[in-house]
Structures are given as C-alpha cells and as structure tokens.
Amino acid sequence: METVTELFKRLAKEREEGLKVNPRYDIDKLADENGEVPIYFHSNIEYRMYLDGKSVIGSTERFLHSDLLRNVQKDRIEKLTDGRTLAHISALSTTTID
Which residues, including other chains, have CB under 8 Å from residue 34's CB and lie 6 or more apart? Predict the structure, then answer.
C-alpha cells in the first residue's frame, strides 16, 4: 500500500510530467466532463464583470453554500496562479463580423 508521502511524490511527478506535455494540465485536471471549472467570485461586481465578458480573476477554492459560484469553460481560463487557486479569466472578444 502506498503511503501518504509516496502518494504526494507520485502526484507531484505526474503533474510535472503533465505540464511538460500540456501547459494547461492543471486547468484540464480541474475541469469536469463538460470542460467546465467551478469558479468562486469574490463579489457581485466580479461576477457581473464575468457575465459582461470582461477579464476578471476568480478562485478555484472556497466552496461554501453561500459562495457565488459559476462553472466557467476551461478555454476561457488563461492561467492559474498563487498555488493554482486564482483563475485568470479572459475577456470575451468584442470583434464583430459584418
């Protein structure tokens, strides 16, 4: 049976190898079968910015019943920072086609 220490070492090695192949490895691992990542928005202002298609930062942590959560398509997440907890969500394109 694998010890907790061995498990963490194995997971760290898997992540390291995964990042070599796919720079978006962490985002892909967080995504569900629909390609969505649950994101916590700190305030209604940040949530409104997300809904308006603006660039905003959300969190992949802190899920309480009172938290404002939204499943965000992983393709809209630019990167994860601060220990893979802050999700930088890109703005939607405002380009129109005539």
Answer: 71
Whether residue 17 contacts residue 53, with contact meaning beta carbons closer than 8 Å, is answered with: no
The whole-angstrom separation of Cα 79 and Cα 86 is: 8
Q: What is the pTM of this model?
A: 0.79
Q: In which element (H, E) is residue 98 found?
A: none
CA distances for 87 relative to 13, 15, 26, 69, 98, angstroms: 23, 18, 11, 13, 33
Give the pairing of strands 56-59 and 68-73: unpaired
The tens digit of pLDDT for each residue in 4-31 reads 999 999 999 999 999 999 999 999 999 9
d(CA 69, CA 58): 9
